[in-house]
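Dear Dr. V.,

Thank you for agreeing to look over these. As mentioned in my earlier message, I'm a first-year student in the group and I'm still getting used to reading structure tokens, so any feedback on how I've presented them would be very welcome. I ran two proteins. I've put each sequence directly above its structure. The first is here:
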Amino acid sequence: MIKIIVDSTGYIDKSYIEKNNISVVPLRVSIGGKEYTEGVNLSVDEFYRLLRETRELPKTSQPSVQNFIDVYKKALDEGYSIISIHLSEKVSGTINSARLAINELQTDKVRIIDSKITTFSIRFLAEHAAKLVKEGANFESVCESTEKLVKRFYNRFILEDIKYVVEGGRLNRAEGLIGSLLNIKPVLSFTDGVVKPEGISRTWRKAKEVLMKFTESVKSTVGIEKLCVICGENVNEGKEFAEIIKNTLQVNADMLQCGAVIGTYAGPVWLAVGIQSSH
């Protein structure tokens, strides 16, 4: 038997999690001196309201080693081998906590997969692994196939306000300063596990055009098997953008709204495209 475990930054629908027997190890966020557990005692809407009201930016923290031990041990005791899929090791200590938990449990039945990104990459990897499990694939083949899929991810994202990603330490302050001084919109990517500047746009409308051109380029070069439009509190804008992609490129576009941990660094309003290529 194979169990899939993810962290909360995959923002996978609860119905899918329940249907596929997936377990979630949540990250935490502290706002105004109060700590919340993502997806447990803080809704997405409430988070973005607090984010706009707070004077100090929230702080995030990875799951503890004990959090992982608790989830792993339960699954192991039930006879499962575990595939544990998480956000990039270069931006979070989540994978390190998972490794320490494995060492504590002294087990060889847990395989960690670094998604190299977050959000859509965790979701797509979990969906891929779950499909293989349902088809009856063995543990090693599910792990190997899922790890290979990481190389087929492409992404770009745009931020309305760059201060969150800069003050959160996910982008160099010198790079961020350009955007804040000139009031331009940065185009960023997750590349090799870290946030990387990919360009700038003068306006939000132009930045969205860059996202579209990027998506067109991926389709024309490596093809698109899956695509996800990702956003913060601007859900309606995200839905509209997904519809534009669908009508323009004849590619189905799913929606993914992110909550506290990603929103802490991206801010209230942002847009992204996450793509799984055809090959």
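The second protein is here, in the same arrangement:
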Amino acid sequence: MSDAPNPPTDTHQAKTLPRVIAIANQKGGVGKTTTTINTGAALADMGLRTLIVDLDPQGNASSGLGIDTRSLEHSMYHVLLHGVSMEDCVEPTDVRNLFVAPASLDLAGAEIELVSTFNRELQLRNAIHSVIDDYDYVLIDCPPSLGLLSVNGLAAADEVLLPIQCEYFALEGVGQLITNVGRIRTSGLNPTLEISTIACVMYDSRTKLSEEVVTDIRDHFGDKVLRTVVPRNVRLSEAPRHGQPITLYDPSSRGAIAYRDIAQEVHDATKH
């Protein structure tokens, strides 16, 4: 991992509520949606009204919270392209204080349809602003590729939470995300956007490699890295099949404990 990218130069600053956080990583399969769902649920359990915005056409954040994406009247596709209000798209979940603006397969075509839309990069920001006063946190689950959906997510966010898996190719894609955040900032779409938080996930305590990867990540990114490390946990993998976050599916599991700690650390950053 000697060729790891240089860390972002932004200084970590305390935030105030409401906070809009994009959960992003250009590499797929790194626990991004798992982190979105379970951090959101843990924040909601703390009494904080939390909205998860599912921008991934696969809709895993939606189905992982028990939403049947095939029977939706409105989804984020309709919000971004047909002027449906965010309020009319939002669905409740089984977790008190946790809501989701669901995705549908229609979102797969949104990348093309958005090209000809006025202010195409700012559709999500405008939609979120219309409901922001109703929530303490808005978590945006971004797709792994940098198309117009991810650009909308990054343009709408105050900050980025970056999950990194504790494996050999951990920093693959991270450099590209750092570059893209810089582009969003310098383009004027979101001049204050920063990678504020990095979460080490999929940690396997049986291997020395996981420990070395976490050390490497901390060396590169400093205090942006959360103290809590999320372990590999079979219950975390099972929970989405039941349409529940881990805090509801198995609240005493190691995964649930870790994500409650993640949520606490994230929330502590609001305190001056």
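From my reading of the second output: Confidence is low (pLDDT under 50) at residues 1-12. The beta strands are 19-23, 50-54, 91-92, 98-101, 137-141, 159-165, 195-203, 225-231. Does that match how you would interpret it?

Kind regards,
E.
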